[in-house]
Amino acid sequence: MNLGPKGAWSSRGAHARSSRDTYAQSPRIPPAVQILQAVDGPQKHYDLIMLVIANRSNIYTPLINQYWKRMIDATEKGGYSLKIFLLFGGDPRPTITIPSDSLIISNTQESLIPGIFLKTMYAFDHISKNYTYNHVLRTNVSSFFRLTNLMALQRTLPLARFSGGFTGDSRRDTGLFINGAGIWLSADVVDAFLSADKGTLKYHIPDDVAIGVFVRSRFTVQTLPRLEPIAQHAVNFPHPPEHVLGILTSQMGDHYHVRCKHLGDRTRDLPILMGLMDRFN
Question: Which of 24, 94, 217, 234 sits a CA distance of 20 to 30 A from 160?
């Protein structure tokens, strides 16, 4: 195991697969980045690995410490073949109290462009060196997942050459992209990112658009509906969270994903997310 300062895990691990050498040696990302965790022993398998784009702020820190801590606990208690990682560009401890084995810290800049895509790529590298898995779901802190529906959907998805999510058209003339709140990729598609030639990946545009540009050039993108736009409209109602929860509960059905991001008052997100946990997980 290649360790950096203070036991930090280096993205240039000794057991990297040869198909990912292009990524490991590429100068397109600063080479000094390290991820603060190492996985010893045989690779553990998960049906699904969830990568959550995270950051510290007055809004996000309570979401992470309360809602995502509870989501991780529910995953473990439910015995799901699901591992959740929160992705940070810098060490968030002690402000963030999520267990260290659920953090991937890339020591890249915290920014929309190129920070989110950088964090995503380092997470791809880490999980592919340390785990086996069927699918990755890249998401963000303001997403709710009904775990039974999430895993039921995952079992139906293709195991190879698969990418999907809630899709849209970019105004940047790049065509179809997968909304960053829920990007599904099979393991071989993650490998394709890691072995991509220098210059193939677009770090100068939003991460979900860049991911869409790459996968669309090689694979078929499948639309997977989430509870949208009903959910986004309901979340932005000027009503108490309990009223919004009643609307979302009545509409949930077989949906697996609710994007819960109030466009004006982000303090409303947490009680709605926690209420959805009470009702569905």
Answer: 24
Q: Which two tokens stand for residue 196?
A: 């991509």
Q: Where are the chain's structural domains? A: 5-225
Angle ∠(145,73,259) on CA atoms, nearest 5: 20
Look-up of token digits 């190879």: 160
Q: Give the span between the Cα atoms of 88 and 34, in whole angstroms.
A: 12
Phi, psi of 125, rounded to the nearest 5 degrees: -60, -45
Residue type, 242: E
* Phi/psi of residue 137, nearest 5 degrees: -125, 110
Distance between CA atoms of 22 and 139, rounded to whole angstroms? 25
Cα distance between residue 16 and residue 90, in whole Å:
23
213-253 confidence digits (pLDDT tens) = 898 888 878 877 666 655 666 777 778 888 889 988 998 88
5-225 topology per CATH = Spore Coat Polysaccharide Biosynthesis Protein SpsA; Chain A (3.90.550)
pTM for this one?
0.85
Q: What is the pLDDT of residues 58-98, one digit of tens each?
A: 989 999 999 999 999 999 999 999 999 999 999 999 999 99
